[in-house]
Amino acid sequence: MDGKQAATMVRRKQKYLMHIVGSFKPEQGHFRPVDGMMSVAQQIRHIAFTVTWFREGVFGAGFDMDFEKLEMENRRPVTLGAARQESDETYADYTKFLESLSETDLSAPMSPNAVFGEAPKVMVIGAGADHAAHRRGALRVYLRLPGITPVMVYTE
Fold first, then answer.
1. What domain range includes position 122?
2. Which of its termini does the chain have fewer beta carbons within 10 Å around, N or C?
3. pLDDT above 70 covers what percent of the chain?
4. CB-based contacts of 40: which residues, under 8 Å, 6+ apart?
5. H helices then E strands: how many in the chain?
6. Per residue in 96-116, pLDDT tens?
């Protein structure tokens, strides 16, 4: 897989996410099933944070394992519009970066790390997709709780 193919995969996963996110009204951004859980908007921002976390972990300075700090950042209040914008910008920047990579770049081993060991860098694409799918599922539940039927995610 080269960078253009990786970017295409990441864009597809973002599109699936946006199908779900588009079902929420702006005033529903602060909805959370129970106190202590992330709001809709925080879930979306968390996905963007994790895209950046994976990118930095594999292609940048390494994985920031200070989860308490990361959790505090994610728990900050955010509007649905701001979270969507952050997500859009994060994905756009990431896919542009991925497009610049060759198959050799992506098949190279990662620097030793506690998350993936020294696996090929391309592993981050699947891990990001798995994480986003997990969060999409949570957001679908968030939609169903107030009685909204989620759209079919995998439509073009």
1. 3-144
2. C
3. 99
4. 24, 28, 29, 30, 31, 32, 80, 83, 139, 142
5. 6, 0
6. 999 999 999 999 999 999 999
